[in-house]
Amino acid sequence: MAKASVREKARYWFDNTMSRGTGALIGWLAAFCAALIVAAAMLAVWLTPGEIENGVPGALWASLMRTLSPGKIASDQGTAPYLAIMLTASLGGLFFVSLFVGLLSAGLKTKVEDLRKGRSRIIESQHTVILGWSDQVFTIVAELVKAREQKSVIAILADKDKVSMEDDLRDRIPDTGRVRVVCRTGRPTESADLDLMNLGAARSIVVLSPSGEDPDAHVIKTLLALAKRRGDHPPVVAAIAHSGNMAAARLAGGPGVHLVDSDDTAARLIVQSSRQSGMSVVCMDLLNFDDGEIYLRRVPSLTGRTYGQALSAFENATLIGLRRATGVELNPSTETVIAEGDDVIVIAQDDSTIDLAARPAAVDETAIVRAGRTRLEPERTLVLGWNGRAGTIVRYLDGYVAPGSVLDVAAGHPDAGAGLGGLRNLTLNVKECETTDRYALESLSVGLYQHVIVLSDDRFEPHHADTRTLMSLLQLRDMQTVMHERYSIVSEMHDENNRALAEVTEADDIVISDTVIGLLLAQLAENRHLSEVFGYLFDSRGSEIYPRPASDYVTEGRPVTFATVIESARRRGETAIGYRRAARVGEAPHFGVVLNPAKSAELVFEAGDKVIVLAER
Predict the structure, then answer these.
(1) Tens digits of residue pLDDT in 591-604
(2) Which pLDDT score, from 0 to 100, does residue 384 have?
(3) Which one-letter DSSP state was computed for residue 52?
(4) Which of 498, 511, 444 is closest to 475 using CA atoms?
(5) Which of 382, 294, 308 minimizes the C-alpha distance to 345?
(6) pLDDT for the residue numbered 114
(7) Which residues pair with 423 in a beta bridge?
(8) Where is the RCK C-terminal domain (predicted)?
(9) Among 190, 93, 84, 174, which residue's Cα sits nearest to residue 138?
(10) What is the distance, to the nearest Å, from the Cα of residue 425 to the centroid of all Cα atoms in its chain?
(11) What are the domain boundaries of the chain?
(12) Is residue 7 scored above 80 in pLDDT?
């Protein structure tokens, strides 16, 4: 290889210095400008010594003034050589000053853009860190704002412009109270970017599943980056979109990570809502921080009592289960003895309200109804639409229904009904159908079904999929009105903002799957010990939430205390946690649901009202 020439070496050296940024450019500009000033001064001293006052210093000052202020030449007088030298200095100064202003402006602009990106390290402690960006971030931040009574910080790191994130959050959550939200631009999968979040001092970390293709790969890579970092490791909560990736995510995150299976949770909630109208509303009330929250509390004075006796122990809190050394039990047997070291699981407005009642609230024995259990009968269910979690929904539904039940799937999706062999109780039929077309829906004879489930089609982006779901719901409502038919309708949607539009369709339940997952992540970020409780609630094994007719528990039309409702449910092996008013099912935000009412509060139940209980199927 030929040896580099002196010129090439000089040019290479110059190029390297020029690439060091605005500071190096300004340095070179200052050097050239100084050279011009010195050259002009020396020429003036040599060629026109009579025009210079104070010798060399005077010449340098005169040259400096003409270079920095080219307009100074207009007032100059003297010989032609002197004026020519000063004019040259002024022209050179005009050139250098223009370059300097341009470089300074570009450098400041670059610096401002860097500041807008938020690249400084966060100096906070006990802050909640959210890694990633999706629509769930608004739900999580809004819920954490409700949960925090003291000053605190929520820090968000995402591969998105910092100002854009702040503007979006300000539009969706205008009032954050005493909570400060700090955004940083960076990749959650990069260790250097994670270091900006001061994770070692964080209270908890939430990893969001981004939108787009293969979101779980991004989550798993982020979990690997978190596990690899040195220092303290705060609790991590992450959402996994597809159940098949749970094992890989557990391995990547390690034992300190609590994973939420989005597909499985949403599928269970859709199935349970199709069986019991209002189930999703009850779950969302339990998951948000507006009113009743779930707490774990050790109450030594309850040691030795049975679970049935402890149900009436609190006035303003509702007992729902126990956490024991063997795990969580919701609605255990009424004869279960509360042992030393057991935590009670209660729903309460605030942890300060979890106090034992001075005396149990009165129970009206004459108002208690002894209704028998209804026997499960074969039924017909129609599923309109198809998506990636539909197969899980069908398999869970198969575990709920009586043998001989029929499930018809009507969809235009190419994968509809695929891979569903081995169903025990359901007979599955698949029909080609455009679910938004009125004539296609009428040809299904929808009135023959007891339940209709409308699923979001994953072939379309979420907003368009929600629009198609709304169209299907409107068609079904009109068909019910015209044909005087009645069947329960449960629909799945993505955007919480579309719930208000969907209420026009009078669907029995609307499951906003993204919102439910966001609420669940917010709860676990505040208290990771609740993961067992919510895992139990969304599991088909054991007790589940059921809104059941109030007439099955107490006499309608007469005042009764909620303590009477609890006692009636206890005799059926159930735990009453609230009620739902039929006359208020369309009223946001609770849609008629009241959880954890005071035990001594008098209620009058009307036709259509429901009692919300934890019960075995």
Answers:
(1) 788 899 999 988 99
(2) 95
(3) -
(4) 444
(5) 294
(6) 66
(7) none
(8) 282-363
(9) 174
(10) 36
(11) 18-109, 127-255
(12) no
In DSSP terms, 432 is beta-bridged to: 411
Q: Return the CATH architecture of domain 127-255.
A: 3-Layer(aba) Sandwich (3.40)
* Cα separation, 426 vs 155, whole angstroms: 48
Whole-angstrom distance, CA of residue 322 vs CA of residue 330: 6
**Rounded CA separation 588/157 (Å):** 32
DSSP state of 564: H
d(CA 284, CA 545): 12
Output the CA–CA distances (angstroms, integers) from residue 45 to 48, 58, 446, in the order listed. 6, 9, 104
Q: What count of other Cβ atoms lies within 10 Å of the Cβ of residue 474?
A: 16
Answer yes or no: is pLDDT of 1 > 60. Answer: no
Angstrom distance (rounded) from CA 274 to CA 46: 100
The reply to whether CATH 3.30.360.10 applies to domain 18-109 is no
Cis ω for the linkage preceding 403 (within 30 of 0): no
Q: Please check whether residue 117 is in contact with residue 161, taking contact to mean a CB–CB distance below 8 angstroms.
A: yes
Averaged over 168-175, what is the pLDDT?
91
Place of tokens 């000063």: 86
Take residue 297 and report the two structure tokens written for it. Answer: 């509390």
pLDDT, tens digit, for every residue of 488-512? Answer: 889 988 887 777 777 666 667 788 8
**pLDDT 10s digits, 201-258:** 999 999 998 877 788 999 999 999 999 888 888 999 999 988 889 999 999 988 888 9
Asked whether 157 and 128 are in contact (CB, 8 A), the reply is: no
- The answer to whether 513 and 209 have CB atoms below 8 angstroms apart is no
Q: Give yes or no on whether 18-109 and 127-255 have one common fold.
A: no
Q: What does the block give as tokens for 450?
A: 């007891």
Question: Do 367 and 558 touch, CB atoms closer than 8 A?
Answer: yes
The pTM of this model reads 0.78
pLDDT at 163: 84
